[in-house]
Amino acid sequence: MTRRLSPQQRRWTVAAASAAVMLIVSGCGLVGVRVSDEAGGPLRIGAQPTMGPEPDPTETLDPALADHTLQNVRFTDGCPARVSIHVPTDWTGNASASSFNARPSDSGLDDARLSVYCSEAYSGSASESVASMQSYQFTDSATTISAERTGQAGPGYFWTYEAELGPEEAFYIDEPTSAVGSVVGYPIAGKVYQIQFNYYFASDDADARALATASIANLAVEGSEIGAPQWSSSPGSSTPGDG
Length: 243
Fold this sequence. Notes:
Blueprint (H helix, E strand, L loop, with lengths): L6 H20 L3 E6 L7 E7 L18 E7 L7 E7 L2 E5 L3 E6 L8 E8 L5 H11 L7 E10 L2 E10 L11 E12 L2 E12 L3 H11 L3 E2 L2 E2 L18
Antiparallel strand pairs: 1-2, 3-4, 4-12, 5-6, 6-7, 7-11, 8-9, 9-10, 10-11, 12-13
């Protein structure tokens, strides 16, 4: 003859079984057990992965970026590229659907500036879009490129440069003018997009040059780091990459 358990004994039996299940499940990194108070009710196990401690950060910030603030730029006008750029902290920025611009907060019309622009490239590949831009980025024969580098960045391609502008260039500021920038071609969802980064400043403005080279040397597009040359203004510096 089978012995019947009292309601209290049944609840104890369910509780013991629940505890055993909890030990087994928690040993696998899963926790959370709920038991119905009703006699004979269903046993419900809510198992969720346990969250471990936050990993220690492994990325070391370039000391040259001490006076910069990271900006994650998201364009909205037909350009899905995600851009990360460190902008000088005391500069004021504004964004439009396809561009981002920044200047020193107390600047005039002819002071340093940053321009970021994104558009569809209409080229067959990332490298073709960059090569096309190289051919007409500068139009004055007096312009000289003092440092440059091209290379791969994930599935994309880049050309990063430092230049001294001739007086006929569009962004010449009525005194000797330098430019530091990068052109990136990047394929996304079957299309190639071109992202242009340009700093312009007076050639004798050492502070602006240092801010610009640090910023351009630490660019990222879609999480891919963009390489930089050994800047002519910093002969002892170098950055990793494809060469």
